[in-house]
Amino acid sequence: MLPAALPSDLLSEHSLIYSRTVSTRARSLPPAERRTALVDSARRLISSRGTVPSTKDIAEAAGIAEGTIFRVFATKEDLLDAVIASTFCPAVLRRGLDDIDVTLPLRPRLVALAALLQHRFTDVFGIMGALGLTAPPPSLAGVHAHCTPGEGHVEGDGPPDDHPRHTGGGPDEAARTAYLVERFVAADAGRLRCTPEQVITYLRLLTFSGSHRQLTGGELLDPEEIVDVVLSGVEKPAADSTGEKHHKTTELAAAGTVTTMTRTRKAR
């Protein structure tokens, strides 16, 4: 005869199989996907904590056993190297740039560009700060030769023989600038007091510095603020004017924008 009730600390086979309280591990993944999942988990933890997490914490975030990490990466340093390579990959940024609606008017178009660049800068600054980096490591040269906007970050076997890592050349900065100019500014060149190339340079410089907390006193510039400062200095006045009147109008516009930004930031 069975007892009227079973002790509460006993478990049946059924409860072990179906109980919702039994912890589960992440599903089995192909090696490449498991590697990507580990890198993404480590990146998120580093960004959120501002420090390097333990392999135990990384494993828990990825839903795997700690030992699995070392079946994918020989050492923790190899995992951190992969995090750095992923963080600096230009393909994800290029995909985001391609996705911005360039039919928007100039100001919202540039705000979208500044917001994307700021996200990129803050992500990179956060990882660099947590890992104690002051510049991109030289080991990154050529690492992204296989990456594309469509595929994202791809870890290949190394750069091709004609890549700058082997030939001694550098990244084509002129080509990157030309892409940004053509996609985001060229259509409105007639509204500007300077060249479209200068507009992109001003926007990138202000977004870079405005996204670094040590340079901004701890509070980042908003993308709207960045674009307003840039446009107040580079846009022609609404009505055609000449000489002194043109210069005065621009000065007043810039002063008004900076004053508004100052008051807004103090109010926060």
Task: Give a short synopsis of this structure.
The protein has helices spanning 13-18, 31-49, 55-62, 66-72, 76-88, 90-99, 106-131, 164-167, 173-184, 196-210, 213-216, 223-234, 243-267. It has 268 residues and is mostly helical. The chain folds into two domains: 28-88, Arc Repressor Mutant, subunit A; 89-267, no CATH class.
Rg of Cα set: 26 Å
Can you tell me the number of structural domains?
Answer: 2
Largest sheet report? none
| Share of helix, binned | 55-70%
Number of helices: 13
Global morphology: elongated
Query: Average pLDDT value?
Result: 79
Question: What are the secondary-structure elements, in order, as H or E?
Answer: HHHHHHHHHHHHH
Topology:
Elements lengths: L12 H6 L12 H19 L5 H8 L3 H7 L3 H13 L1 H10 L6 H26 L32 H4 L5 H12 L11 H15 L2 H4 L6 H12 L8 H25 L1
Structure commentary:
With about 270 residues, this protein is mostly helical. It has two domains: about 30-90, Arc Repressor Mutant, subunit A; about 90-265, no CATH class. Helix content is about 60%, strand content about 0%. It is built from 13 helices and no strands. It has helices at about 15-20, 30-50, 55-60, 65-70, 75-90, 90-100, 105-130, 165, 175-185, 195-210, 215, 225-235, 245-265. Helix 2 crosses helix 5 (about 75-90). The longest helix is centred in the middle third of the chain and has 26 residues, at about 105-130. It is elongated. Mean pLDDT is about 80; it is low at about 5-25, about 155-170 and about 240-255.
